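Limitations

Structures in this collection are predictions, not experimental determinations, and the ligand pose is part of the prediction. Treat each record accordingly. The example that follows, with uridine-5'-diphosphate-glucuronic acid as the small molecule, is included so readers can see exactly what is and is not provided: the inputs are given verbatim, and the output is the predicted complex.
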Amino acid sequence: MKVTVFGIGYVGLVQAAVLADAGHSVCCVDIDESKIDALKQGVIPIFEPGLAAIVKENYQAGRLVFTTDPEQGVDFGELQFIAVGTPPDEDGSADLQYVLAVAETIALHMKSHKIIIDKSTVPVGTADRVAEKIKATLIQGNKAALEFDVVSNPEFLKEGAAVNDCKKPDRIIIGTDSSHAENAMRELYAPFNRNRDRIIVMDVRSAELTKYAANCMLATKISFMNEMSNLAEKLGADIEMVRQGIGADERIGYHFIYPGCGYGGSCFPKDVQALVRTANSIGYEAQILKSVEAVNAAQKYKIIEYINHYFKDGVQGKTFALWGLAFKPNTDDMREAPSRVIMEALWEMGARVHAFDPEAMEEAQRIYQGREHLSLMGTKEAALKQADALIICTEWQNFRAPDFEVIKQQLKYPVIFDGRNLYQPKTVEKYGLDYFSIGRQS
Ligand code: UGA
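Predicted complex:
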């Protein structure tokens, strides 16, 4: 099939590449000329395992086309994905200006029936607004007779596993009341729907809410566990034992119940806030979601609490080695990362940071360019040199079995503040190191 994707950001590029890899022809449209030029040269703007190879291969095979020309994009496919960003407004609600601008562009150039697919995470009711925008633009352009469908087809990609998630989806949600659009979407996703039927067709608004409900449920699990970890700490229990104990119940399960220094990324914080706003706008107070957000915001300061408890005279002039800048492993993304809250709090208190991350060094450089109290170090060992203490913010595989002897030798104060519970307290303490982790006794 011929498909157009507007917005070659994270979601758009992964979706386009995976569709092309399955044999579809995909035209990628973005207003950012430098990004499109770079993609044509094989330069991928994000770090995502497996993505560069399929982009290159399918571009060379002619199944992926990159352009900044919207007219070319609209002419290309009957299926038109909208995958542009929906950044949070000042009040936390999703900003739809880019989505609506693409809707207008499609209407301006369309000459035949189009199926417009909302892929971006958009509030309930957006498909209706997209349809209104298209209709109004068609009327203005004397093209009122042209027909179109708007479909909600949310993505469920995890950063770091996006290509795989896209190739092997748990479910494919199609929100539409048009049988023509449903059939086209079924054909599009047929290569990813083998062995068992993963397609769930529903009305548009339910599809839009499904996306938020999924992310908010996952964020709720994490904040719930973080709240339990705070209780465990105060009650003399070990949250890691509690986690295993409750995860064994299949109704609860082991996924997304890892306590830590808070969730980050471009999705959970934004989507929880956006749903709270949506609820407000219809006069409903989303009490659970507000608490999920509040617990997470507080959790990002947990490590700072431990540090203040340990360094009773303050940390002015102290240097902290910090392992893990990305909001989670296998990505270079630092959006809403706990590391940022922790580093910024340390700087505020007059401390220095020696940071290392296996992938996010360039991103840290971009965000904190010229920052006086930050040194970006080439290895995790280098970060320890001249440091007073060690902080861990991200559970990279490479941090799981460090040489504790070296840590002990390098640090001026033998202490690890671990925001991801990577080690057994007994093991660390055996090396003469103090160990503060989340929801356990230290
Ligand atoms: C999340 C969802 O998992 C995807 O299903 C969804 O498609 C995506 O948002 C999106 O809306 O686009 P992502 O933000 O890439 O994906 O990251 P996750 O793997 O979900 O991790 C989010 C955060 O939660 C990380 O900071 C992670 O460290 C934290 N986390 C996760 C915990 O603190 N504990 C856990 O048990 C699991």
